[in-house]
Amino acid sequence: MAELTGRIALVTGAGQGVGRGIALALASRGAAVALAGRTVGKVEAVADEIRSRAGEAHAFSCDVTDPDSIAALVGAVVDEFGGLSILVNNAQTTVNGALLDVSEDEYGAVMDSGPRATWRLMRTCHPHLKGGGAIVNLGSAAGVRWDPSGYGVYAAAKEGIRSLTRAAACEWARDGIRVNAVLPLASSPALEQWSQERPDEAGDYLRTVPLGRFGDPEDDIGAAVVFLCGDDSRFITGHSLPVDGGQVLMR
Q1: DSSP track, the chain
Q2: Kindly report the CA angle at 107 between 101 and 111, in degrees rounded to 5?
Q3: Of 144, 155, 118, which Cα lies nearest the Cα of 244?
């Protein structure tokens, strides 16, 4: 289970939830992992967890809405590890609400941390990923559900990320960079809070999942990301993969 030995992965939003799970999965398959997040204590804790499992990890502070912070992050990761093989764009500010209720500032925060940050990170990492690198961006089923009422801004951000994923996959194929997206449905602090605040809605939502459960951030979502970053998926690029227990029918 060391198919990523020798690879260097950068995971944003790696301090908790899905980002933490992805980082743990990548490390367990042999990758050295750079963990980026706004709260240094959280990413340091995940780095310690990886090292306790005999993996290699370092924590970095980054605000993905700040282009200077992104440039500093990528430079620091390359200096620390000597290169970069994998980029996972997971960080995302989430604001839910009806379109008439979301403020200008809230809309900007979602877009700046989502598609704009994804675009900036991909561009900044591009020179280091040429010749065999892989990018995995995080989309969401919110962007493809038949009724995104109450989640429209978040859905728009995630669909923007999917569009950027497809464009980068096509434009950078000649550079040897594969770019894919996953649409996860996983247990996370945000999901747990939502379930507590809206138990009836959460129960109805879970009943739309054929496998009848939420995914594990490491064993389900992380494993899918590992696959998309490894050699077994070398002929897959530009793809959006729901990892959601069968909930979404992609068309």
Answers
A1: --TTTT-EEEEESTTSHHHHHHHHHHHHTT-EEEEEES-HHHHHHHHHHHHHTT--EEEEE--TT-HHHHHHHHHHHHHHHS---EEEE-------S-TTTS-HHHHHHHHIIIIIHHHHHHHHHHHHHTTT-EEEEE--GGGTSS--TT-HHHHHHHHHHHHHHHHHHHHHGGGT-EEEEEEE-B--HHHHHHHHH-HHHHHHHHTT-TT-SPBPIIIIIIHHHHHHHSGGGTT--S-EEEESTT-----
A2: 155
A3: 144
CB atoms within 10 A of CB 136: 26
- Give residue for tokens 């996959």: 169
Residues 182/224, Cβ–Cβ less than 8 Å: yes
Q: Closest Cα to residue 136, out of 100, 89, 102?
A: 89
Q: Can you read off the two tokens belonging to residue 202?
A: 């959460």
**Prediction pTM value:** 0.95
> Per-residue b/e over 21-47, b at no fewer than 16 CB within 10 Å?
bbbbbbbbbbbbbbbbbbeeebbbebb
> What does the pLDDT look like over 95-143, one tens digit per residue?
999 999 999 999 999 999 999 999 999 999 999 999 999 999 999 999 9
Whole-angstrom CA distances from 38 to 13, 32, 66, 128, 163 are: 8, 20, 11, 23, 26
Which sequence positions are flagged as catalytic? 154
